[in-house]
Amino acid sequence: MDHKNIFPVFEHLTKREEKEKLLGQRALAVWICGLSGSGKTTVAIDLERELFKRGFICQILDADNIRTTINKDLGFSLKDREENIRRISEINKLFLINGMITINCFISPTSEIRQMAKETIGENDFVEVFLDAPLETCQKRDPKGLYLKAASGKINEFTGISSPFEKPAFPDIVISTETLSVKESSKKILDFILPKIEYTQKD
Fold first, then answer.
1. Sign, CA torsion 75/81/85/87
2. Is 108 part of the annotated catalytic residue set?
3. How far apart are CA 97 and CA 165, in angstroms?
4. I need a surface site. Which of 28, 43, 85, 169 has the fewest CB within 10 A?
5. In what order do the strands lie in the sheet with 101-105?
6. Cα gap 74→40, rounded to integer Å
7. Contact between 99 and 19 (Cβ < 8 Å)
8. Strand residue runs (E) in 54-193
9. Is this structure's pTM higher than 0.90?
10. CA distance 21 to 160
11. Maximum CA pair distance of the chain?
């Protein structure tokens, strides 16, 4: 393809550093993974509220709102799951260059998928949080009734039942939502990321 007529506009856009200065925060992608029912969205909402109280602007990207909008064309095969995360990772990059903090809530079932997200977003801008809740606990909670549907065969390729979940080997944060409350869980993330997102003038 002949690219001679494509104008390279991106080098003329306002830089990320300038936007971070305006917002008074450092951009970061917080990637919360874990089984369905582990508490990803619930913890993310509490974390977002706590950050907002402290003057930080965040965007939650959640599997439910993404899969019913941007990625509604995707299914739940491993290939489609990979594409789902690839697109989300690219969306994260757009938020990052605009100085925003993102809180991502996605099962992200395999090590390969999580590594792809980390490499796409960038290691320095990526914090991996694993909500470690036993399958039995998630099944008991089952807030959306998905485990019951999976057990009855109404949902195919459901993570933890008919599709595997690989526990992260080296996440930045591990949280047992079986033993910690929502507040305790979000505070653990908050304490870890605050030094990364607090704005200080660079030389």
1. negative
2. yes
3. 31
4. 169
5. 58-62, 101-105, 28-33, 126-131, 173-175
6. 21
7. yes
8. 58-62, 101-105, 126-131, 173-175
9. no
10. 43
11. 60
